[in-house]
Write a structure and sequence with these properties.
The strands form two sheets. Strands 2, 4, 5, 6, 9, 10 and 11 form a seven-stranded mixed beta sheet that branches. The chain has a four-stranded antiparallel beta sheet with strand order 1-3-8-7, with no helix packed on it. The chain is built from no helices and eleven strands. It is 0% helix and 47% strand. By secondary structure, the chain is mainly beta.
């Protein structure tokens, strides 16, 4: 059974940093793009950051650029999201996602990702 499990969420203050982790099990995603999405209450799930299988190409949402960094460890089938200078508007449930496509291209739309974790809550207080 393929699973993605996020961890590292929590309650922090504005300006703090937080690192999310996602562990994949049941198969390897070393040939697939992986990404982080988030969903705030009453809003649609949105792309935050993604990384291609070769770990060279990355993409970030405008709100994440300069503050968040995505990384991967193929040997451990892990993907991470380092978040800094957190703002109250970053409050959301953060989801790890993996694409089933083995393309070198990095998708940034939700529909291109087939595997999802259960999410981890990040709350940033002002």
């Amino acid at each position: 059974q393929v699973q993605l499990e996020e961890s590292g969420g929590g309650l922090v203050q504005a300006g703090d940093s937080l690192k999310l982790s996602c562990a994949a099990s049941g198969r390897t995603f070393s040939r697939n793009s992986m990404a982080w999405f988030r969903q705030a209450p009453g809003k649609e799930r949105e792309f935050v950051a993604g990384m291609s299988p070769n770990m060279v190409d990355t993409a970030y949402s405008d709100s994440a650029k300069g503050r968040f960094t995505i990384s991967r460890n193929h040997a451990r089938d892990m993907v991470y999201l380092q978040m800094s200078s957190l703002k109250p508007e970053d409050t959301a449930v953060y989801y790890c996602a993996a694409s089933s496509l083995t393309s070198p291209l990095l998708p940034i739309v939700r529909g291109r990702y087939n595997y999802w974790g259960q999410g981890t809550q990040v709350t940033v207080s002002s």
